[in-house]
Amino acid sequence: MRRTTWIALLIWLLSLVAALNTGRDLMYNVFYMLTILLVGSWLWAWSNVNWLALTRYTRARRSQVGKFAEEQFQVVNRSRLPKLWLEVRDHSTLPGHHPSRVVSSIGGRKKRTWVVRTLCYRRGRYRLGPLTLRSGDPLGIFELKRFLPQTGTILVYPATVDVSAFKLPEGQIPGGEATRHRTHYLTTNVATVRDYVPGDSFNRIHWRSTARTGRLIVKEFELDPTSDIWLMLDLDPAYHHAQPWSPPDEYGRPALLWNERPSDIVTIPATIEYAITAAASLARRYLGERRAVGLITYTHHREIIQADRGERQLNKILETLAVLEPTGVLPFDRLLTAEGNYLDRASSVIAITPSTDLTWVAALRELRRRGVNSTAILIAANTFGPAPRYEDVLDALWASNIPTYLLRRGDDVSQALSHFTRPD
């Protein structure tokens, strides 16, 4: 209990003792008055945290780094008595999310509404709620709390940047099959058109050519050996590093007006964040080009998203990337070797790692020897903390004829992934 509550109870007890010892009507009247005052104050404080309806509406259960998470709160006073003040304390884990409010003077049968927009700057899955209501009586004697245990979750996707300048090794496209022969594969690459033959699917009809020639014309597709793109992400904690970084606190962030947009989000100075941002950006780019993209990594167990196309596939990859942390138990070279056995010439690997162990370069070189096109994104871990230099790995990659992109701390990910990095 509060100090003022103890003082009030002590005065009440002293008045009772004085009344019993003296037997005077004045002391009994003081005791009765204090009793009525204390009981009334407690009832007032109790009513302030009850006969309330508090609703919490989250506009979307998913957001992304650099975008807003928006919530609306509404407090309804269901009693006829006014509530002088009410504190709504939120216990969410979303960084920078501060919906707590002190609501003053809610009239009988009235309501108060407020909207909170929080700029997301860290990926992950976070809890929304629970809430604590706190209020008291006008004299400040009692202070009561009411706990609302209901919770929800919000998933913050990693940031994505423009990586349109990123290049993969060109595949050896064999061309379409012979005309008058049914094509067995649907790809994004149209090689030519030909006359319709029985057995062709109607979704392959090229309507413009059909309208122009007056007969059914169908599309024939090329099979690109690099059409399936596999993102292989290294989560070995031995090579991931981070610099100390403090998130903005409740009072250190400038307020954003409704018509304002957030400034460019700076990537958290950690190798895992740069790796996740690169993987998410590449997935968005190639899925937007209707390519098949898959994801393979190892945490405490094997994490794999089979290569597929479409918006649903992008959501799967972003959901997985949102919660990944460097907790892998398998070295990256063993990941490449184990998973590379299931890949064929119709695959292209993008290896993303901060590792300075040359064994993974040998594993990637073996994949390339088997005809699996490979590209490396090397994260310079020594720019994030005490780690071995990356130059030997970069030399080995270029000696193996493996195109390599380099990410250093403070680099613009979009710019860094727009050109190959060559050894000095």
Q: Please compute the radius of gyration using only Cα atoms.
A: 32 Å
Strand runs, count: 18
CATH class descriptor of the largest domain:
Alpha Beta
CATH superfamily of the largest domain: von Willebrand factor, type A domain
Order of helices and strands: HHEEEEEEEEEEEHEEHEEHHEHEHEH
Largest sheet: 6 strands, mixed
Strand content: 25-35%
Which regions contain 5 or more consecutive residues with pLDDT less than 50? 172-184, 250-263
Shape verdict:
elongated
Could you say how many structural domains there are in total?
3
Q: What's the CATH topology label of the largest domain?
A: Rossmann fold
- Share of helix among residues? 25-40%
Strand order of the largest sheet: 15-14-13-16-17-18
- The averaged pLDDT comes out at 87
CATH architecture descriptor text of the largest domain:
3-Layer(aba) Sandwich
End-to-end separation? 69 Å
Q: Count the DSSP helices.
A: 9
Q: Which structural class should the secondary elements be placed in?
A: alpha/beta
